[in-house]
Description:
This protein is an alpha/beta fold. The chain is about 40% helix and about 15% strand. The protein has 12 helices and 12 strands.
Amino acid sequence: MKKSKKMLWPLTLLVLLVFALAACTKEQPSLNEKAQAAPAQQAASAKPVQQEGKKVTKDTKIALISEFTSGTHAAQYITGVTKAAKKAGVQLSVSDSNNDQSKMAAYLDTAINQNVDGIMIDHGRAETLEPGVKRAIAKGIPVIATDVELKVEGVTTIDQDDYMLALQGLKQMMQDINGKGNIVYAFVGGFAPMEKRDSIYKIMMNRYPDVKQIATFGSATDNTSLDTQNKMAAVLKQYPNKGDIAAVWAPWDEFAKGVTRAIKEAGRDEIKVYGVDLSDEDLQMMQAKNSPWKASAAVNPASVGEKQVDLLLKKISGQDIPRYYSFDPVLVKQTDLPNQTINMDQLSQYVEEWGKKE
């Protein structure tokens, strides 16, 4: 898959604007006192404890604290974590907070009190997690976080380069709809990755004044895909004519799955869907006959999980690791895919850039 030089002209300007906008992006929503009940006074003055590395053995214990594990993308991330831990021969515990911030803080405290050798954090909100993370660092327990911005010295943060994920998908959408038409935007705030993707969306909407947002919705629930499907179905009833909606921007694969199903059921295959993230199920939906899902920008979720374990074990053993680790996303288009059904492991056979990423 070759990148078009014609599409690179706005990139420099966009990157500069991204950094300016990111600096003033609003903080995540505040939580109730229960969710913030970690011992903040001790944590506030915490500094990383410099310790000699430990040998990684079968007795090494690591913990994953995840905000949620629902959805196929999250499931494949967990698979990557589990696979890497098994390969290294270490003991792994996984705690699913089921979108409950107070549970996430409690699970983090439990891992610290159990004196695990290392902690991984997946998603969550900074104001909930930072007090506990500071306690962990103060006790000499290394922490590797993904998809949450923790401003804590000693923590390594992994991300999927959410700015570029959004830019790749939105550039393709604007190109395919010729920079004009009505679009629907599926979005939920309060998550660092979504807030970053939203900042690019705002820039791109300013860049293309003939593209109009006519509806927006979204929430993170126990069944985000189904809830999104129902909301999109309601929007389609409000705009019943072909041509009323040109495309849907769905920067989370659970959103993309929901809107795709609603569009298919309504027989509105002229509407194009563009998303972020990929899983085996997502690929199959993109490959389905007359699928409206045209493209998604993604990083292999299993690779993210594997890298998180790898960095944590290196940190435990005393090796130097980077403060930040950012993956390079790849735009996967429907036209790149074969007629036969494939999975994520086979994707590199058809999308060359995918095989070059971790």
